[in-house]
Design brief:
The complex is a heterodimer of chains A (about 350) and B (about 270). Chain A contains 14 helices and four strands. Chain A has about 350 residues and is mainly alpha-helical. Chain B is α/β, with parallel strands linked by helices. Classes of the chains: A mainly alpha (about 350), B alpha/beta (about 270).
Amino acid sequence: MIARTAAAGRPVAVTPLSHSAGAQRFPALLAGIGALVVALSALHIGLGTVRIAPGDVAAALLERAADPVHRQIVWELRLPRTLIALVAGAMLGLAGALLQTITRNPLASPALTGVSAGGVLAVVAWLSFAPVGLAMGWVLQLMALAGGLVAITLVYAVSWQGGSDPTRLALSGILVGAICSAITLLILVLDTQRLGSVLRWIIGSVNGRVWVHWTILWPWALVALPLGLLSAGAANALGLGDATATGLGQHPERARATLLFVAALLTAGAVAVVGAIGFIGLIGPHLARRLVGDDARRAFPLSAVVAAAILVAADVVAQALTLEFPFGDATRRAGLPVGALTALLGAPFFLYLMLREER
Amino acid sequence: MSGKSWDGAKPAALQAAGVRVGYGEHAVLDGLEFDITPGTVTAVIGPNGSGKSTLLKTLTRLLRPATGAVFLNGAAITSLPTAAVARQLAVLPQGPTAPGGLTVGELVEQGRYPHAGPLRMLRMQDHEAIRTALGLTDMTAYAARPLDGLSGGERQRAWIALALAQDTPMLLLDEPTTFLDIGHQLEVLDLIRRLNRERGLTIVLVLHDLNQAARYAERLVALDRGRIVADGAPRDVLTTVLLAEVFGVRAHILADPESGSPLCLPYAFVGRD
């Protein structure tokens, strides 16, 4: 194409920019992983105490179930569980991508900001100290949200020294998280009876998540997910360092606080419903960056989709490994909590990342 | 060599008035009076710790002076919206870093940040500015390459392209030749001169190499301990007296056989008072 430069006043032939490999791959990857998510979801809906074949799942979803029990199980129990796993996974993935940009550290994740631990602490404290009548589901979720947001405020306040700094933010996140976890354990030691009901929050699980929980999750996700995706442009500028970002006309301090708040919203919303599922927010963004590069406009949406796929895939495996598990007030047969599985797989992956970074 | 500006924008003038930067008793810059004529190339020189980088950061609002002010086209720079400043002056900080997986094209695209529309989508004029910036720095062929696969010289050109994509009448660079070999140093300096001569850009740069500063800039500003000790044409600034007093070296001053600009040949360190 021909563009005319005003200063030189002569036509200059301009070849179109060639797209990076990441940019070329992006649409196909997004579609491919999207399809994978659909397939995994069908599998996921079928798994549980009663197993339903993917074909019957599809039939039940299309209101053509041969067996009315299948229809009931799929619609009442399994569909909300799958939707919650997908959305919570996406929220954790996007939160991780945001945090890795803010801290300029590929090892940052929602678990390292204190938000997860703060949410869990609030739930545990509420279960132990609040009047029994007030320990219903939605109150607990609100507690988790409040705890997460208080934790991130603390992290920000602790790291503030006339300005914020990516490294200090990461360190104070670990610090606040450790303190919250320690207090949580202390409460549990003093009040062992609550262990069963508290375990789900600490490990993180989508078991028994139904429409009540979905009604808490979706409005939160509807606000936080678009906010996170729309902040990709600001995140790109911030990723170039404060001096360059200022030179480009950004307020890096303001941008960092805003992005941190959005990441906290995403994390707190997910933790409030599924508990502190670890490593999803670390692995999802990392894989996404490997696939499409560091430009946040592609890495952010892909992080959300990849993390959603990983969480559902992990829960498919967890549900397949059905165990006798002490949940709530009674022992019952249930799938392994997915948080246990992600921690088990995530820790070696984390180690691999650290070794790679050292190289 | 002066007057006309890029894309017909009004020439920008930068002025420091009574600028003091520092904490408490210790001032990095003190009582600085300084202004930049549109369409010129100014090099800031001085020994380590003399306040060169601080001066550049203050001129580009990366640092806020304790007293005094920097004026951009007559308005206090810290009172202007930062995006409006970014449309007037671009800055290349010292040793900038970016995520290694970012490609050159994606980096240079960020230069459109201060011009972006509501949804940060690139428009026609943005694409043109990006292509022009890549073309000027000879980086068009590298657009799809990730930054961590580039050599030092290529990476520096990519960062200069980012600043050029901002499409500003002023460009300020902090030691743009550091860590480059001599060939890449001259490549960057030639590019800077070309931007000034062909596009009328007003350029301020911090340089370590005195001979390069004398050769590529029409005005040298020498800083020592936060104060301007000499300011003027290279032949008036680069004197044996200045080299002894500011840098603590004895030197011969010759005329560059290529350009006629002064060329200093230090031969002994004598120390400073």
